[in-house]
Amino acid sequence: xxxxxxxxxxxxxxxxxxxAGLFYIxxxxxxxxxxxxxxxxxxxxxxxxxxLMSERVYKIIMNPAMMITWTCGLLMLGFNxxxxxxxxxxVKLVLLVLLTAYHLYCKKIVGKLKxxxxxxxxxxxxxxxxxxxxxxVSIVLLAVLKDVLxxxxxxxxxxxxxxxxxxxxxxxxxxxxxxxx
Length: 181
Known about the structure:
- The chain has 181 residues and is mostly helical.
- Helices cover 85% and strands 0% of the residues.
């Protein structure tokens, strides 16, 4: 039982670090996209720096944190495999697979930025940066409320929260454009 608590502690440390990396890397993508608006003599140097930063965040923070999260989570399931009979953990595992796909998609973007290929504009990256928030809220609610939570309400709430984040991002974009004039 004592090992289970260590795995749980490191699982929490892992997912906190993983989400920190997921939030930070897409913020770097935003800055990389905004470098196109800088004077030409600065643009290439800034883009190289942001590409390097995103590559380091991916390799040094995100990958190890994801591996710690998955490893400790699976070890916890190994010590308490009866938990797999509960519906909330099945939904959580599906969300984690989708989050891992998002993680790998970020790797694809890191490669494109390194090769200086066209990706998204800064607004699109800002929207992409909200996806981990939706995953975080969903996963934490599942882990805390477990089967008490009605999954349909959770899904509806996450969709509504995502729509709210989109509206906030649109308003922020409009405000920035207004202030630039």
